[in-house]
Design a protein that fits this description.
Number of domains of chain A: 1
Pfam families (chain A): UQ_con
Distance between the termini of chain B: 48 Å
CATH topology of the largest domain in chain B: Four Helix Bundle (Hemerythrin (Met), subunit A)
Number of strands of chain A: 4
Largest sheet of chain B: 3 strands, antiparallel
Oligomer: heterodimer
Order of helices and strands of chain A: HEEEEHH
Protein name (chain A): Ubiquitin-conjugating enzyme/RWD-like protein
Strand content of chain B: 5-15%
Structural class of chain A: alpha+beta
Strand order of the largest sheet of chain B: 1-5-4
Order of helices and strands of chain B: HHHEHHHHHEEHHHEEEHEHEEEEHHHHH
CATH class of chain A: Alpha Beta
Helix content of chain A: 10-25%
Shape of chain A: globular
CATH class of the largest domain in chain B: Mainly Alpha
Keywords (chain A): Ubl conjugation pathway
Largest interface: A-B, 27 and 29 residues
Shape of chain B: elongated
Number of domains of chain B: 4
Radius of gyration of chain B: 34 Å
Number of strands of chain B: 11
Helix content of chain B: 40-55%
CATH architecture of the largest domain in chain B: Up-down Bundle
GO biological process, one term (chain B): protein ubiquitination
Strand order of the largest sheet of chain A: 1-2-3-4
Organism (chain A): Lentinula raphanica
Chain lengths: ~150, ~650
C-alpha cells in the first residue's frame, strides 16, 4: 500500500482515537487500511430516531486523491436507511463521494455529512429508480456514475 | 494554385458571409502549406488543380498551430483586460473561448467574471460555509478555527481542516525558487513571497499528513496548502483519469483554478515537482494536458474539428461546413493529413510530443495501404469518406443497417410466410406439411403451394411448377417486397465493403511479388507502382459505390433516381473490370501489357467515379434529390413518394 494513503489513514485513525468520534458516530472496525466500519445514528428529532446504520469505507491506494468507496452495510441483518438518495443495496448518491470529492475531506467528514443528510430528510422513501439500479449496480459504488440533481435533501 | 484556395466558382456555392469567414491567420499559412503538399502527393492521383464540386475547402492544423491560435486569443484578452496571459487563458476557457461575450461580461462586472472563472477569491461575506480565506497574513491565526465545529450545521461541511496548523497557512513558497516561473501562484497576488519566509516550521500537509521538515507547502492564490507530492498526485490523476484541464484547488468548496504555469511546475520543474514522482507519468500528464486544452478550444469552435483517429492530435479547420444547415448541400470530407494509427497510445503521445511542430505521426513501413490516411467527415461522426451521400442520409442508413440487417437476414433465411394470412412462420422441425397455426391453412413448406395438391407425397415435393405453388410464391415475394428491397441495397453495400478489404489483401500479396520482380527483372520501382495506384482507386471507388447504395435506397423513384443508378451502374461495371484485371496473374513477360491495361482502366474508373461524385454533389447544391423518407434538414417528401 502506498505510503501516502497509509500515512494519511493512520493519522486519521489517531485523531479518531484521541479526539473521539462526533456524537452518533462510532468506529467499529479499522484493523487495516483497506476497510473501515462505523455505526451511524441520527441524533435528536429526525425520521431515523432510534435507528442505527453501519457505514463501510473502502480505500484504494489513491486515497485521499481519489474518494473512498462508501456505502451502508446491508448484510447480517443490517439495513440501509430508507432515504431518497440511498439505494436498498446500501449505495449512496452523494456528490461529495463522486465528482465533488476533495482530498481535504476525511472519513469523519464524510460520516458527518451523511449523518446530516439523513437528519435533514423530510420523507422516508427509496430513490425512484431503486429497483432498476439495484438490479444492475456494480459491486463497488464508485463505478456508478450518479447524476447529482437534487440539492435539497 | 493549391487545393484549398477558394476558387471563384467555389465562392458562388458558399456565398454566406459567415461561412466564408476565415478565422485562421495568415501567418499559419507557411507551415500548413508544407503539410498540405505532402498530403497532395499521396492522395491525389489525377492532380486536378481545380476545386471539384464534391470537395470542400479545409486546412489541416497541427497541435502547435492550434496552440498558436489559442495564444493569439489569449494575447488579445490580455491586451484588453490588462491581465497576465495565465489569467486570460483561464478566463477564456471558462467562457468556452467565446471572446465577445467574455469581454462584454468582463466590462460589466470584472470581479464576478474573475470569481466565476476561479482566478479570484470571492468576497468572504458571500460564503455560506466558513471557508477559510487568507487574504493576508494577519488573518491566518483566526481563519482556521473552524475545525470540526460546524459539523452538524450543514451537509456540505467544509470543515475537516483537522490537521492544518495555523502556522502552516502559508500561501507562499518556502524556498526562493531558482526557476524563472515560480510555482507559487501567489505571484499573481500583489503580495511578494519572500517576506513571509521565516516562520516556516512545522508544516503538516492536510492531505497526506506528512510533516517532515523538508516539506514545502504549495498553494494557489486561495492559500490552501498541500505538499508538492499531493499536488502532483492530484494533478496527474485529474488529467489522466478524468481528462480534466480545469484543475481546481484540492480544498473542498474552493473554486480557484490552477494556472498553467503552476501545473507545469508541479509536473516538470526540478524545484517544485516532487522528487519521488514518476517522471514519465509527469511528462505524459503534461502532454495530455496540452492536448486537453487544444481539445477544449477546438470543441468550442464550430469551424474546427479534432481528428477522430486514435493517437492523432491534428485539427482540421473547415469554415465552409461550420453550420449545420449547409450539410444538406455538401459532404465535408476532410483529412488531417496524417496517416496510420500508432501501435499504442503511449507511442502516439511520445511521437507527438517530441515533434510537436510536425503533423504526421510517423508509422512503420511506408508502402503499406494499411497506413490509411486520416479521412473523416467534418459534419458528422462518421470516421470515413461517405461521399456522395450527405450526412443525414448516411446516418439514417448506418442506423438502419445496425438495427435491421441481421434481423432481416435471419427472417429471410429462416422464415416463410403463410400464403393465406401472411403470418411469418419459422419451421423448426417436422415434415413439410405445414398447418398455419393462425388460419389453419395447410401448405407445403418446399413449394409453398396448398397441401391438397400433394396427395400422399409426404416427404418430398417435386411440383415446383404447379400453379398453386407459383402463385403462393409470388404472393410471398410481394409481401416481402420491402424486406427484399432493403436486402438488395444492403447486400450490395456489404459486398463493396468486403471487396475493398479483399482488394487490399490482394494488393499486399501482389506487392510482395512485385518487389521480387524488381530484383529479378529490369523493371524499376516506379514502373511497378501502377498496381498500387489501381488498388487505391478501386478502394476509393468502392467506397463511393458503397454509399451510392445507401443513397439509392432512400432516393425517391423518378428520372433523377434512374440517372443516378445509371451512373452507379457504369462505375460499378468499370470497377469490377479493373478488379478483375488486378486478379490476373503477373508474369514478368506480360507486365508491360498488363500495366497498359491497368493504367487505362484506372484512368477510366477515376473518370466514372468523378462523374458520380460530381453529379451527386451538384444535385445537392441544386436541391435536386428527393427522398422517400423524411430526412433531417430536407423538406418532407410528398405522400406518394414515401416508402414505409
Amino acid at each position: 500500500m502506498s505510503s501516502i494513503s497509509s500515512r494519511r489513514l493512520s493519522k486519521e485513525l489517531m485523531e479518531i482515537k484521541n479526539d473521539g468520534c462526533p456524537v452518533g458516530i462510532n468506529l467499529v472496525q479499522a484493523d487495516d487500511f483497506s476497510t473501515w466500519l462505523f455505526t451511524l445514528e441520527v441524533m435528536g428529532e429526525s425520521l431515523y430516531k432510534n435507528e442505527q446504520f453501519t457505514l463501510q469505507f473502502r480505500f484504494d491506494e489513491q486515497y485521499p486523491i481519489s474518494s473512498p468507496a462508501v456505502q451502508f452495510v446491508v448484510t447480517d441483518g443490517r439495513q440501509a436507511p430508507i432515504h431518497p438518495h440511498v439505494y436498498s443495496n446500501g449505495h449512496i448518491c452523494a456528490s461529495i463521494l463522486g465528482n465533488e470529492w476533495s482530498p481535504v475531506l476525511s472519513v469523519i467528514a464524510v460520516c458527518v455529512t451523511l449523518q446530516s443528510m439523513l437528519a435533514s430528510c423530510k420523507k422516508k422513501q427509496r430513490p425512484v429508480d431503486n429497483d432498476r439500479y439495484v438490479k444492475h449496480a456494480p459491486e463497488n459504488p464508485k463505478k456508478t456514475r450518479f447524476h447529482y440533481d437534487d440539492d435539497t435533501v | 494554385m493549391s487545393d484549398y484556395d477558394i476558387s471563384d466558382n467555389e465562392a458562388d456555392y458558399y456565398d454566406s458571409d459567415e461561412m466564408m469567414e476565415d478565422y485562421q491567420n495568415d501567418d499559419d499559412q507557411d507551415e500548413d502549406d508544407m503539410e498540405m503538399d505532402d498530403y497532395n502527393d499521396d492522395f491525389r492521383i489525377s492532380a486536378g488543380s481545380k476545386q471539384k464540386s464534391y470537395e470542400v475547402d479545409y486546412k489541416s492544423l497541427s497541435q502547435s498551430s492550434v496552440e498558436k491560435t489559442m495564444k493569439e486569443d489569449v494575447d488579445h484578452i490580455c491586451g484588453i483586460f490588462g491581465v497576465e496571459p495565465a489569467i486570460a487563458s483561464l478566463l477564456l476557457r471558462h467562457a468556452d473561448w467565446n471572446k465577445e461575450p467574455l469581454i462584454e461580461r468582463y466590462m460589466e462586472n470584472a470581479t464576478k467574471v474573475l470569481v466565476d472563472a476561479g482566478v479570484a477569491i470571492p468576497e468572504p461575506v458571500a460564503e455560506p460555509t466558513p471557508v477559510r480565506t487568507h487574504h493576508s497574513v494577519d488573518k491566518l491565526s483566526t481563519g482556521s478555527a473552524s475545525r470540526r465545529s460546524t459539523r452538524s450545521s450543514s451537509k456540505l461541511l467544509s470543515s475537516l481542516t483537522s490537521p492544518t496548523r495555523s502556522s502552516a497557512q502559508k500561501s507562499s513558497f518556502s524556498s526562493p525558487s531558482s526557476s524563472s516561473s515560480s510555482i507559487s501562484a501567489s505571484k499573481s497576488r500583489t503580495k511578494d513571497k519572500l517576506s513571509e519566509e521565516p516562520e516556516q516550521k512545522s508544516f503538516t500537509c492536510p492531505i497526506c499528513f506528512d510533516d517532515s521538515p523538508s516539506l514545502k507547502p504549495l498553494s494557489l492564490i486561495c492559500g490552501h496548502p498541500a505538499c508538492s507530492g499531493c499536488w502532483n498526485a492530484y494533478t496527474v490523476s485529474k488529467i489522466r483519469d478524468e481528462a480534466e484541464h480545469c484543475i481546481r484547488c484540492m480544498t473542498e468548496g474552493c473554486a480557484i483554478v490552477a494556472p498553467d504555469d503552476f501545473i507545469h511546475d508541479i509536473l516538470l520543474s526540478d524545484a517544485a515537482a516532487p522528487p519521488d514522482s514518476n517522471p514519465d507519468d509527469n511528462q505524459t500528464a503534461w502532454v495530455r494536458f496540452q492536448e486537453l486544452l487544444v481539445r477544449s478550444f477546438v470543441g468550442a469552435n464550430p469551424k474546427l474539428k479534432f481528428c477522430p483517429y486514435p493517437g492523432c492530435t491534428n485539427t482540421v479547420s473547415c469554415p465552409a461546413a461550420a453550420s449545420k444547415s449547409v450539410l444538406t448541400t455538401m459532404v465535408p470530407i476532410v483529412s488531417c493529413g496524417a496517416k496510420g494509427i500508432p501501435k499504442d497510445a503511449s507511442a502516439a503521445a511520445a511521437s507527438s510530443s517530441s515533434s510537436s511542430g510536425v503533423t504526421t505521426v510517423t508509422t512503420t513501413p511506408p508502402s503499406s495501404l494499411y497506413d490509411k490516411e486520416h479521412v473523416f467527415c467534418f459534419g458528422c461522426p462518421i470516421e470515413s469518406d461517405h461521399r456522395p451521400v450527405v450526412c443525414a442520409v448516411a446516418r439514417l442508413w448506418l442506423k438502419k443497417c445496425e438495427d435491421d440487417s441481421e434481423t432481416a437476414n435471419w427472417i429471410k433465411s429462416n422464415t416463410k410466410e403463410c400464403s393465406q394470412c401472411q403470418s411469418t412462420i419459422e419451421k423448426n422441425g417436422g415434415c413439410n406439411h405445414m398447418t398455419c397455426k393462425k388460419c389453419k391453412y395447410e401448405f407445403c413448406w418446399v413449394c409453398m403451394g396448398p397441401w391438397s395438391e400433394h396427395g400422399t407425397a409426404w416427404y418430398s415435393c417435386n411440383r415446383y411448377d404447379e400453379k398453386g405453388g407459383v402463385e403462393a410464391r409470388d404472393a410471398q415475394s410481394r409481401s416481402r417486397a420491402s424486406l427484399e428491397r432493403y436486402l438488395h441495397y444492403y447486400n450490395r453495400w456489404a459486398n463493396h465493403e468486403q471487396s475493398a478489404k479483399l482488394s487490399i489483401e490482394l494488393y499486399a500479396k501482389t506487392e510482395k511479388k512485385m518487389e521480387d520482380m524488381q530484383i529479378t527483372s529490369s523493371l524499376t520501382w516506379i514502373e511497378v507502382q501502377f498496381m498500387r495506384k489501381a488498388v487505391e482507386v478501386v478502394e476509393r471507388c468502392r467506397s463511393t459505390l458503397k454509399w451510392t447504395y445507401a443513397m439509392a435506397y432512400y432516393l425517391a423513384k423518378g428520372n433523377e433516381k434512374d440517372l443516378f443508378e445509371d451512373n452507379q451502374r457504369d462505375l460499378e461495371k468499370a470497377v469490377e473490370d479493373l478488379s478483375e484485371l488486378l486478379e490476373s496473374p503477373i508474369e514478368s513477360e506480360n507486365i508491360p501489357v498488363l500495366r497498359q491495361k491497368v493504367t487505362d482502366k484506372t484512368v477510366y474508373v477515376q473518370k466514372r467515379n468523378e462523374i458520380v461524385l460530381e453529379d451527386t454533389a451538384t444535385g445537392f447544391q441544386d436541391g435536386r434529390w428527393r427522398w422517400n423518407v423524411s430526412v433531417d434538414g430536407f423538406e418532407e417528401p410528398p405522400e406518394e413518394l414515401m416508402v414505409n
